[in-house]
Amino acid sequence: MPTEQSTKDKSQLLVTKIELAFNTINQPRVTSDLEWEWDAKHQVILTHFARNFAQDILTVVERNVPDTWHSKNIKKAPNSLREQFTPYGKLSTEQKIFTMSATKESPGLILIWWPWGHGNTYSLRIGLLDTQYDLANHAPQPWWQRLFS
């Protein structure tokens, strides 16, 4: 398990990348409004923002983090990933988890996209993945095996 400081440091790399992407697409108003804090319960960094920023932030996340998991495809995720999703509970329709496997240059990352129930606020958590995964070599379980998992 990564230490709290290494998680913060490595997660900050992605935050910096997101902020650079926002500046590139000329939206500094969004990054100046984002305040990041440490979420000790999940060992991730966390920010909250209003619904009017959600689409801009989601666009940047989708461009920079290749794998998206949601309520309809979460059971097709590799077991090693699904185990790491467990602390966040069952995903509702609008909630998403984005992942990027580790490479030689960067750690594996997890981003949790969490619209709040009232619909006016969103949160985004960024943390490290404990395991590496390869979707190209991952064969999802047949439906009858998923029934019992």
Question: Which helices and strands appear, and what pairs or packs with what?
Answer:
Blueprint (H helix, E strand, L loop, with lengths): L3 H21 L3 H6 L3 E3 L4 E7 H14 L2 E3 L9 H7 L10 E5 L8 E7 L5 E8 L14 H4 L3
Antiparallel strand pairs: 1-2, 2-6, 3-4, 4-5, 5-6
Helix pairs in contact: 1-3
In short:
It is built from 5 helices and 6 strands. The chain has about 150 residues and is α+β, with helices and mostly antiparallel strands.
Would you give an account of this structure?
This protein is α+β, with helices and mostly antiparallel strands. The protein has one domain. The protein has 5 helices and 6 strands, in the order H-H-E-E-H-E-H-E-E-E-H. It has helices spanning 4-24, 28-33, 51-64, 79-85, 143-146; strands at residues 37-39, 44-50, 67-69, 96-100, 109-115, 121-128. The chain has a 6-stranded antiparallel sheet. Helix 1 packs across helix 3. The model has no long low-confidence stretch (mean pLDDT 77).
How far apart the termini lie comes to: 25 Å
Largest sheet: 6 strands, antiparallel
Order of helices and strands: HHEEHEHEEEH
Structural class: alpha+beta
Key features of this structure:
149 residues, alpha+beta, 5 helices, 35% helix, globular, six-stranded antiparallel β-sheet
